[in-house]
Amino acid sequence: MRVLRLLRAVLREIFDEAAYERFCIQERLPAGRQSYYEFLEQTKNTTKQKVRCC
Amino acid sequence: MNSGIRFAMWTLVGLLGALALATIALHRGEQINALWLVTAAVCIYALGYRFYSGFIAAKVLALDPQRATPAERLDNGRDFLPTNKWVVFGHHFAAIAGPGPLVGPVLAAQFGYLPGTLWILVGAVFGGCVQDFVILLFSVRRDGKSLTEMAKAEIGAIGGVVAYASVISILVILLAVCALIVVNALKQSPWGTFTIAMTIPIAFLMGLYLRRMRPGRVLETSAIGFVLVLAAIWGGQWVSQAPAIAKYFTMTAPALAIALIVYGFAASALPVWLLLAPRDYLSTFVKLGTIALLAAGIVVMHPTLHMPALTKFVDGTGPVFAGKVFPFAFITIACGAISGFHSLISSGTTPKLIRRETEIRLVGYGSMVAESMVAIMATVAACVLEPGTYFAINSPAGIAGQLPEKAASTISAWGFPVSAVGMQALARSVGEQTLFNRTGGAPAFAVGMAHIFSNSLGGQAVMALWYHFALMFEALFILTVLDAGTRVGRFMVQDALGHAWKPLGRTSWYPSVLATSGFIVAAWGYFLWQGVRDPLGGINSLWPLFGIANQLLATVALCVATTILIKTHRAKYMMVTLAPLAWLVVVTFAASWHKMFDPDPRIGFLAQARKLALGGESARLIFNNRLDAVVTGALIVMVGLILIESLRQWVGILSGKRAAQTTESPFVITGLAEERV
């Protein structure tokens, strides 16, 4: 069970779901279109520069 | 566990590893099971992780669990965030694992399975894992600084300039070679082209779905995207069998190259959320799943390796790429053994997530071990093929022959029997018109992977589906690298131009966005075009260039690491980074010399240019070879510069003439010390 929880946490982090959740908590915003738009705007620069290895 | 049991267990691991290694190294003339490779790898990685990385962690780097990391000190809930070590491990692995560890080992399999396997194992344990580990720690101790910033601060201005130039060169050459692999995999393949073309609207759809319908549900969206990609693979079969539609997706190599250049430009200029981000999610989803599936397939099916341990091509006459096993095996396999590119990730997002210094061992060293295991699986996938089949797929028409019968007889004459009829049957079974002259490594890997999968899941009836699944998996990987790389290159150019004229540095100013995107795409597009027109298949010249550029970046990283070790009074342990550095310098210099000056036209760029000039070939082809020689020369000058600068630092500090000034952040005690990991 612990392993599954960990696996879920790993996947949520890789797929930025956890980052979005943290953003909503930090900005005190409900999950939804507007907050996701703001999240994308705020993380735009880091996402744009994310290097993917060969 | 008490020490007696631990000792017995590690002794057993050592003995098993030695037995497996002896089996793969000493068997001649007999086929061995792939599980020997897997067993040797698992045991060596386990020993390397337990003992060598333990030694580095305790003695060389002196990881301090009491020292607060930047994730804790600068926690802003976004870039800097203390994160569970397994989560960071997954995140880091997903970023470092790309097409490199799949393609390099497949190409190097022309020497037999042994050279590649030994280099992957030794290179990873003593080189790649160490590089990733030390750079991650040094970045953590410098508030998450990037490699170029560290090179500038620790080695000097020249270090910073060389690091910057090597990142740009590696990006351009990497993107060109990646695009060439996709071109070679998809040319004259309506099924493959349709499937990959469909991933673009699928990514758009995912972007819109994420933005409008289910904001933030990335995993769910990626799963939907994955199902749609599977449907596209299924649909591709139908497309390939409908001549009226198939003709639109049956493309020549030049046409595909143009399509990719246009795509690269669009991907760099379009909003991130619309194409880049969803494709990245989709690619990661497929990548993690497929790697797990491939590992399971190899263990369940435990196939026999048909490729011999060593082939006659160790003498440098190989058809896949020319050059002797030394130095070319060591630049052909970079990712999987040691890859300079990883140092960009280790000094990118990962150091900002590390919760405690002691966790760097798992993330830095451990992730590279996992990547190296992927390279071993790629070696298995290539070597389960009959050698004749492997060479038929990977030999360019300029060497094996244009017509199937001619190619089959040439390859059979090398001592690797293959027939045109047999290859035709294999091509039919995977839904292709032909498998001859499909250079680049991706189709050979796809056939090997389909072979493994179809024998464990679904049988021969689904061979074509597995083949196209494998092809889609690789192309998706590569196109993600292309998207992200073009964009990163664009940012680097904008950053540099911004110093000359501020508006050019603004990432939201469209004239600058278009101009810099165009510049980066033109740079890699030129090399791609050159590869497509190359009579020797392109991979022969571009992959070694990529290998040299990648190892140049690793040289920069290891120079930075050695300099920091000396500056922090740990010179007695400098061999940990100096030994792989010395090896890389020897390999890079030797390979570069051969690529520039070797009298064999298949190896030396200048010899090839002379041969083309004598044959009255086009001026463009002659120029391309001379350009490649100049690029190789420029890379080697950069290696020389960074070495000289580093040596000046080392000698100065060790002789007491220079003060050992380092830029480490001040020690702050962690508030997380008592928390259980």
Distance between the termini of chain A: 34 Å
- Domain module tally of chain B: 1
The oligomerization state is heterodimer
Which structural category fits the helices and strands of chain B? mainly alpha
- Which spans of chain A have pLDDT < 50 for at least 5 consecutive residues? none
Largest sheet of chain A: none
Mean pLDDT of chain B: 91
User: Any idea what the radius of gyration of chain B is?
Assistant: 24 Å
Q: How many individual helices of chain A?
A: 3
Structural class of chain A: mainly alpha
Mean pLDDT of chain A comes to 83
Total helical segments of chain B: 28
- Portion in helices of chain A: over 70%
**What profile does the largest beta sheet of chain B have?**
none
Rg of chain A is 13 Å
The sequence of SSEs of chain A as H and E is HHH
Outline of chain A: flat
Total E-strand runs of chain B = 0
CA-CA gap between termini of chain B: 19 Å
Query: If you consult CATH, what is the topology of chain B?
Result: Amino acid/polyamine transporter I
Low-confidence segments of chain B? none
What's this entry about, in short?
Chain A is mainly α.
Structural descriptors:
heterodimer, A: 54 residues, mainly alpha, flat, B: 677 residues, Amino acid/polyamine transporter I, 0% strand
Structural features, described:
- The complex is a heterodimer of chains A (54) and B (677).
- Chain A has three helices and no strands.
- Chain A has 54 residues and is an all-alpha fold.
- Chain A has one domain.
- Chain A is flat, with a radius of gyration of 13 Å.
- The N and C termini of chain A lie far apart (34 Å).
- The model of chain A has no long low-confidence stretch (mean pLDDT 83).
- In chain B, 72% of the residues lie in helices and 0% in strands.
- Chain B is built from 28 helices and no strands.
- In chain B, α2 runs parallel beside α6 and α6 crosses α25.
